[in-house]
Amino acid sequence: MSEHTEERQSRIARRAYEISQSDERGNDDDNWRRAEEELDGSTTFGGPDDGPSGEPWAKTSSGDADNI
Questions:
Q1: What is each CA distance from 63 to 14, 15, 18, 52, 60, in whole angstroms?
Q2: Average pLDDT for residues 26-42, to the nearest whole number?
Q3: Residues 57-65: contacts with CB under 8 Å, at least 24 apart
Q4: pLDDT class of 3 with cuts at 50, 70, 90
Q5: Percent of the chain beyond pLDDT 70?
Q6: Neighbours of 23 (CB within 10 A)
Q7: Is the pLDDT confidence value at 19 over 70?
Q8: Which of 35, 39, 44, 45 is most open to solvent, judged by the fewest CB atoms within 10 Å of its CB?
Q9: Could you tell me if 25 and 31 are in contact, meaning their C-beta atoms sit under 8 angstroms apart?
């Protein structure tokens, strides 16, 4: 696996985990697919930096995702 691919997989895994901890989580496959779509910018939820409600999200100091 190339370094670029490993970094992408890592970002997807982190976002899928964040989704799995949210109220709008699905099953593991759904969370992974949604993370891919968000990070690739092809989500129906908003842009690549948007959370599930279309609001921008960011990591908090604790490392959790939070709407800003």
A1: 10, 11, 9, 18, 5
A2: 94
A3: 64/18, 64/21, 65/15, 65/18, 65/22
A4: confident
A5: 60
A6: 5
A7: yes
A8: 44
A9: yes
Q: Which two tokens stand for residue 36?
A: 């891919």
CB 12, CB 39: distance < 8 Å: yes
Given a cut of 50, is residue 47 above it in pLDDT? no
Residue 48 CA to residue 24 CA, distance in Å, equals 17
Whether 17 and 40 have beta carbons less than 8 Å apart is answered as no
Three-state secondary structure readout of the chain: CCHHHHHHHHHHHHHHHHHHCCCCCCCHHHHHHHHHHHHHCCCCCCCCCECCCCCEEEECCCCCEEEC
